Amino acid sequence: MKKTFALLLTGLIVVALILSSCQSKGPESGEGTTVTGKTEQTTAPTTGTGTTTAPTTTSSSPLVKDSLGRMAEKPQYGGTVTIAIASPVPTQIWDPIISTRSFTSAVHVYSKLATADWITGPSGTNEYSFESTYIPDEFLKGELAERWERPDTRTMIYYLRKGVRWQNKTPMNGREVTADDILYGFKRGQENPQNVFYVGPTVAEADRLKIEKIDKYTVKFTSPDPDGRMLHGEGQWQYISPKEAVDLYGNLDNWKNAVGTGPFMVKDCVPDSSIMFIRNPIYYEADPFFPENQLPYIDSIELLVIPDESTRIAALRTYKIDCYNYFPWDKVEAMKRTNPDLMVRKMAPDYGCEIFMRTDIAPFNDVRVRQALQYAVNETKFKEEYYKGDALILGWPVQPYFTTHYTPLEQLPENLRKLYEYQPEMAKKLLAEAGFPTGFKTEVAVSAAWPKGIEHLSIVKEDWKAIGVELEIKPIEAATFGSLIYGKKFPAMVYSTWGNNGVDDVFGWAHDGWVGKGGAKSVYAFSSVDDPIATETYRKLMDTLDFNERERIRKEENIREIGLCWEISLPIPFSNTFWVPWMKGYSGEAGIGPDPPEHGGVYRYVWIDRAMKSRITGIKQ
User: Fold this and answer.
1) Where are the alpha helices (DSSP H) in 395-531?
2) Residue of 591, 601, 558 whose CA lies nearest to 135
3) 321 lies in which domain range?
4) Does 452 share its domain with 516?
5) For position 208, what pLDDT does the model report?
6) Which residue, 123, 490, 526, 540, could crosslink 587 as a Cys pair with Cβ 3.0–4.6 Å?
């Protein structure tokens, strides 16, 4: 999918970079084991790496049987969820055609063709961990679409859900969604440079995504090239715009003109300060656990802009906000001590901490040099001393929640496993073979706005001294860093995070998998990898529909690329989400996909135990 919008996100991804196995749980949810209305403390296993810890709290809701046959608390209607964000951008950008930056608000107001199948997550059958906002195809369900067909790797046919209505607001007035809306939404995206589906005027008709109306409720997409990720792309990356509203207002830039098909409507917005969303009474979706209940349960969502991290933490500690995802790793234990009543879920990271190298020039074009540098990082010491043991060593190229093609560190072939075991003598041997018996001098650029990144590199610098590699750390002003890394203007190495929470992201966009028309390369390929095998492997993935075959290809390619050390991987801290115990129907899910700003999509499923909130906080709703 990213081949369609790689250039668009060049300016947007910097923020995301600096941030961006099935086991049934039965009756156990993120709240623990429910017995006679009391939630007892437990640590609930999930797929992937996540664990959820719940306090002992007494529910005010009776137990009833849900659609999975479990005894569960009966959901209640009403109440408000209050959340905080650091950036004011969601209060400023309202038009859903502006990809990524509008998503924090769009996820509440608008809809896509497909979304996460909530019942398969940790609140339900736990088939998928929902540790990432990326949702694999097999755990998606229809949103505006009821179902789809995939005849081949170039074609998707969506059959729309009948009876879905636009919000009852001028000028849409609750009319039904039809295939014409889908065509309009994608056509508008193809014409807007800020949309992921934008197609420039110079692109030939044969090279464009073709969208056809088959009948009132059926739409066909045809890709010019094999695209194994069409469901992820067309299904999840386009919020559908209301044509009559755009015709009336010219655009959807003003929050007062927002009108979609989603679970919430915009009641008020104070730019740079707050947004209030209220319940859409004609939203189509029912609770998958209690199908007789129309969603959403809550009356409203209050979104507060709180740029300062310590202020956001204090807001959670004093119950001014109800949920805090991507909680700072070095503040987790303190929050557990001061607020033992809070729920918390630890999950695998959704990014890598990578030292990217110019593999197109010496000395980094020699795999022996790259392997030597990886051998010389004391990963275990880094993890234990810097992160106090609460970090993941191997999360690149693939994260562990992709269980069917991730290979755990302890299961790697011995030669690859040792890359992460600190082998300075082996590193020296490889450097000598590569012509650097006494080491060499080099430099690494890092954003000056990322002080922790500078700390990381200081640790690496000391490790590399042992093999004769003298590393100069060069902090770069944030305003300049983006152009340096995307323009590949760094002379040797650059250190950054890289969001690898999606299937094939690293294969396609960091490691030469995707090659565009005329040989164009991904703007995210910071290591300048040129590898024909990676390109051919990615082509096979895009042209393969069979799930088992795709996973076999991915597993083999992951192992191959680990050994090539195109980046030096450093440990990554686990992610933690805290939430209040009275926010029910939630088990720490990262989001409903496909992007981190869409974490807010989870609130259509939650409900508030208002009696519990009043009892614990004294606050009545």
Assistant:
1) 414-417, 424-433, 451-465, 478-486, 505
2) 591
3) 21-347+582-617
4) yes
5) 93
6) 123
